[in-house]
Specification:
Length: 185
C-alpha cells in the first residue's frame, strides 16, 4: 500500500513539474511575444535614426555622382534630419501596424489591410532639403538667383522622391498563397 501511495505521489509530482514548466512558458509568451503592447514598447525602444542611417548610408554613396562635391554630406544631412523628424511618426505607424497584425492573426479582423500615407515623409524630406541647401549653399549654386536655387531644390526633391509611392499598403496579398494558407491554419 505504501508503495502504491509513493508511486501516485511521485507521478503527481512529475505531472505538476511538467505542468508548471509548460504553463510558465505559455504565460511568458502571452506576456511578451503574444502581447501587442509588449511588442509596441520594444519597437519604441529601438534607435530608429541609427538603424535608418546605417541602412541608407550604402545607398547614398552609390546614387550620388562623383562630380558633385559635398553631395554625399548634403544627402546624409537631409536624410538624417528627415529620419529624426519622422521618428515619432514611424513609431506610431509601427504601433498601428502591430495592432492591426495582431487583430488579423487572432481572428478579430477578417482581413489585413493597412494603408499608410507617405506624404509626411515627402513633406519632411522637402523641408529638410530646403533647410540644408539654404544653410550651406553648394559651390555650384554660389551667386545663383533664388529661382535657380528653387529649381535646384525642386529637381533634387523630384529625384529623391521618384521612387517613394504616395502610400504604403500592407495586406495579405503581399504574401503568396502558400504563406496565406499556413497563416490561416
Amino acid at each position: 500500500m505504501n508503495f502504491l501511495k509513493g508511486l501516485v505521489v511521485s507521478l503527481l509530482g512529475l505531472l505538476l513539474f511538467f505542468s508548471l514548466s509548460i504553463f510558465g512558458d505559455t504565460l511568458m509568451l502571452k506576456q511578451t511575444l503574444l502581447n501587442p503592447d509588449f511588442v509596441v514598447s520594444q519597437v519604441d525602444r529601438l534607435d530608429i535614426p541609427s538603424l535608418a542611417e546605417e541602412l541608407l548610408s550604402e545607398q547614398i554613396a552609390i546614387e550620388i555622382p562623383q562630380e558633385v562635391p559635398q553631395g554625399e554630406e548634403l544627402v546624409t544631412e537631409v536624410l538624417s534630419n528627415t529620419v529624426a523628424d519622422l521618428e515619432p511618426w514611424m513609431k506610431q505607424q509601427a504601433g498601428v501596424l502591430i495592432y492591426a497584425g495582431y487583430d488579423y492573426f487572432q481572428g478579430r479582423s477578417q482581413s489585413l489591410n493597412l494603408v499608410v500615407s507617405l506624404e509626411p515623409v515627402k513633406d519632411s524630406l522637402r523641408d529638410n532639403l530646403e533647410r540644408a541647401v539654404s544653410e550651406a549653399l553648394p559651390p555650384e549654386l554660389s551667386g545663383a538667383s533664388p529661382e535657380m536655387i528653387e529649381q535646384f531644390i525642386n529637381e533634387a526633391y523630384q529625384e529623391a522622391t521618384r521612387d517613394i509611392p504616395e502610400t504604403f499598403e500592407l495586406n495579405e496579398n503581399l504574401w503568396g498563397t502558400d504563406v496565406q494558407t499556413i497563416l490561416e491554419q
